[in-house]
Amino acid sequence: MEAISLSPEQRIRMNAGAAKGLAQIILTQAVILMVVAVLAGLIAGFDSMWSAFAGGMIYLIPSALVVMQMLMRLYAGANASVASFFIGEAVKIGGSIALMALLVKFAGDAIVWPALLIGLVAVLKAYVLLIIFKKI
């Protein structure tokens, strides 16, 4: 099987599309997090709003860091690899677990668990909206 060769213009166009898709994912996650946090605050008060926001940030922060690393590799001209993808996923999972542990340790009594989990799941599944609306 022979490798596909891209012209510089094709590579630039493909990289721009990839960068746009990555940015859309993070932006969608952030917007959904804000909506969920505000709704939690309106329905159940400040503690729920804070918990929903914290729950979403548990995944959004590692996800944004991995996207930033992917964008840096993309613009540096580094080739994508399966290993870098799996390392990025491991960073997201490990980072999320670490942030959850820190949150429980330092704010355990103030957490409203249903709101936190709703915020977390909303950010985890935000990409579904992009798929539904054919943005990625």
Question: Describe it for me?
Answer:
The structure is a single chain. This protein has five helices and no strands. Helix 2 runs antiparallel to helix 3. The longest helix has 37 residues. The two termini are 28 Å apart.
Jot down its keywords.
136 residues; mainly alpha; elongated
Tell me the layout of helices and strands.
Layout: H1 8-44, H2 46-76, H3 82-107, H4 113-124, H5 127-132
Helix pairs in contact: 1-2, 1-4, 2-3, 2-4
Q: Helical region count?
A: 5
Radius of gyration: 18 Å
Strand content: under 5%
Distance between the termini: 28 Å
Uncertain ranges: none
Number of strands: 0
Could you say which structural class the secondary elements and strand pairing correspond to? mainly alpha
Overall mean confidence score, pLDDT: 89
Order of helices and strands: HHHHH
Report the helical percentage.
over 70%
Largest sheet: none
Identify the overall geometry.
Answer: elongated
Short description:
The protein has five helices and no strands.
